[in-house]
């Protein structure tokens, strides 16, 4: 990787210089070449400079999968500033908590570019500390259309060690932890993925996974910036996704299990041409054999599993010639990444033994910001202890067998059960609650709440309705329990530990 650009801005400029007249972006009816995208990004960068964004500043990006997200992200990186992608599906309360968390962690969010309907909410939200200035909040269109905001962009020399991304990871304790990834980290992630998967400008990447999420940001957006491959943007809808693969001749398709399962359930009579695909890969949640078999039988393509995390992006991927025999493996390490399985004392296990998955990578963050020593003990001498359980076979293939963490992986997102429990526990009529991950009809993990009522004789139906209404009002949709089960008591061990295995 020696000689490769070591900042996002340099990667982008190198790609523009190399393939500037080729297609870069497809967003519905809008199409941009790399030269045009560079012009858009530089224009926005000038406007952001005029609004006070300087190297090191934080810019929150609360946008969906569209040209606005890509242009804003690139403009922020051209300025040597720090992108803070946040889920636009979050409730105002959740957005407020994350923005307040940025401030606590020392990330100075100067501005916010958000979906139009979120702008008035974020402008009025009191999430900054007393005496601190409130970030300005704008929607992308106000920059994209209003000439009054246009200002000349003054080029910035970006340090590879400078912060490029501020993101949140649930960590091992269940509370969101802020972390900084540098330009060098993101460039390394892009290089590792491109070298492993052999991504070139002749590929076409479909991004229906969220760009604010590590999977979409790294394996779609950064991969495109690094290679010059066109990026086709969209939100997942079955017929539209199948049409986009055919029309745009998509070759790389990153997704999550529920997307692959949904596509595989299309009617046999419905025409679906996926001949151009050379790689379908899934991340964010375990892939079931039922989904693998259904998709392979329907389309003739194996789904490859990819393993990664917010702290470093992609770590391993299954590129076996015959993935039908290793569908449950997440594959071998990406180029330049070392993976080991260790015991509780940090000693490497022999091949075939189960232990904690750990790895080291140039893409790995240095640690969580503004967190105590216990939160950062998973970073050990350049290695990261993931909290996931797994084993390596004799060929070096990694198999993820479980989690030491309690988080629920649903629809490609991580859900902290304690956050959902707090909402439910605060409602009248609830004596106790435990939230766990359960298996849905399609083999996917879903959120389940087990509730003990104050009055065992109380009617379940109105209480269930009230609990779900409270969750929908305070939590993103993917965090809302799909199942609410009432029990007389929560099973516990003699020491009082909740026996979650009896609740799943």
**CATH topology name of one domain:** Rossmann fold
What is the helix content? 25-40%
Rg over CA atoms: 23 Å
Q: What is the count of helical runs? A: 13
Largest sheet, strands/sense/barrel: 5 strands, mixed
Distance between the termini: 45 Å
Give me the secondary-structure category. Answer: alpha/beta
Average residue-wise pLDDT: 90
- Beta-strand portion reads 25-35%
**Biggest sheet, spatial arrangement of strands:** 11-12-13-14-15
Q: List the uncertain runs.
A: none
Total strands? 25
Give an account of the 3D structure.
With 504 residues, the protein is an alpha/beta fold. Among the domains are: 30-158, Rossmann fold, CATH 3.40.50; 408-502, ANL, C-terminal domain (GMP Synthetase, Chain A, domain 3, 2-Layer Sandwich), CATH 3.30.300.30. It contains 13 helices and 25 strands. The chain has helices at 8-19, 34-50, 67-78, 92-104, 119-124, 140-145, 183-197, 214-227, 238-247, 257-264, 289-299, 417-425, 460-474; strands at 23-27, 30-33, 58-62, 82-85, 109-114, 136-139, 163-169, 177-182, 205-207, 231-233, 252-255, 279-282, 303-309, 313-317, 332-333, 338-342, 355-360, 379-380, 383-392, 398-403, 408-410, 413-415, 430-439, 445-453, 483-486. The protein has a 5-stranded mixed sheet with strand order 11-12-13-14-15. Strands 16, 17, 18, 19 and 20 form a 5-stranded antiparallel sheet that branches. It has a 4-stranded mixed sheet with strand order 2-1-10-9. Helix 2 packs across helix 3 (67-78). The longest helix is centred in the N-terminal third of the chain and has 17 residues, at 34-50. The radius of gyration is 23 Å and the shape is globular. The mean pLDDT is 90.
């Amino acid at each position: 990787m020696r000689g490769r650009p070591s900042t996002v801005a340099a990667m982008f400029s190198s790609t523009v210089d190399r393939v500037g007249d080729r297609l870069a972006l497809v967003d519905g009816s809008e199409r941009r070449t790399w030269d045009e995208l560079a012009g858009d990004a530089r224009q926005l960068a000038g406007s952001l400079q005029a609004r006070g964004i300087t190297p090191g500043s934080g810019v929150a990006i609360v946008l969906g999968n569209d040209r606005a997200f890509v242009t804003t992200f690139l403009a922020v990186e051209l300025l040597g500033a720090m992108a803070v992608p946040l889920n636009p599906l979050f409730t105002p309360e959740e957005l407020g908590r994350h923005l307040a968390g940025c401030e606590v962690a020392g990330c100075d969010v100067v501005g916010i570019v958000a979906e139009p309907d979120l702008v008035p909410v974020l402008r009025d939200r009191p999430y900054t500390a007393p005496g601190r200035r409130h970030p300005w909040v704008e929607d992308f269109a106000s920059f994209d259309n209003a000439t009054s905001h246009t200002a000349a962009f003054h080029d910035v020399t970006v340090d590879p060690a400078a912060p490029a991304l501020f993101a949140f990871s649930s960590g091992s304790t269940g509370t969101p932890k802020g972390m900084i990834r540098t330009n060098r980290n993101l460039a390394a992630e892009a290089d590792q993925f491109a070298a492993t998967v052999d991504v070139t400008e002749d590929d076409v990447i479909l991004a229906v996974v969220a760009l604010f999420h590590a999977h979409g940001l790294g394996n779609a957006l950064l991969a495109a910036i690094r290679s010059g491959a066109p990026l086709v943007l969209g939100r997942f809808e079955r017929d539209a996704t199948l049409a986009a693969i055919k029309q745009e001749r998509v070759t790389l398709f990153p997704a999550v299990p529920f997307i692959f399962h949904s596509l595989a359930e299309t009617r046999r009579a419905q025409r679906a041409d996926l001949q151009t695909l050379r790689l379908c890969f899934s991340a964010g949640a375990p892939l079931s054999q039922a989904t693998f078999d259904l998709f392979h039988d329907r389309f003739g393509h194996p789904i490859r599993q990819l393993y990664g995390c917010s702290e470093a992006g992609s770590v391993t991927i299954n590129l076996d010639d015959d993935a039908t025999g290793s569908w449950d493996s997440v594959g071998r390490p990406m180029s330049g990444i070392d993976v080991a399985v260790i015991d509780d004392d940090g000693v490497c296990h022999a091949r075939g033994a189960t232990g904690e998955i750990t790895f080291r990578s140039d893409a790995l963050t240095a640690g969580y910001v503004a967190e105590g020593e216990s939160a950062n003990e998973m970073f050990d001498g350049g290695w990261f202890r993931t909290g996931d359980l797994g084993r390596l076979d004799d060929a070096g293939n990694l198999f993820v067998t479980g989690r030491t963490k309690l988080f629920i992986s649903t629809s490609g997102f991580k859900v902290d059960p304690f956050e959902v429990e707090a909402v439910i526990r605060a409602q009248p009529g609830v004596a106790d609650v435990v939230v766990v991950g359960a298996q849905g009809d399609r083999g996917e993990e879903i959120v389940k709440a087990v509730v003990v009522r104050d009055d065992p004789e109380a009617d379940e139906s109105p209480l269930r309705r009230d609990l779900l209404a409270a969750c929908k009002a305070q939590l993103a949709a993917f965090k809302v329990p799909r199942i609410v089960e009432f029990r007389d008591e929560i099973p516990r061990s003699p020491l009082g530990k909740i026996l979650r295995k009896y609740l799943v």
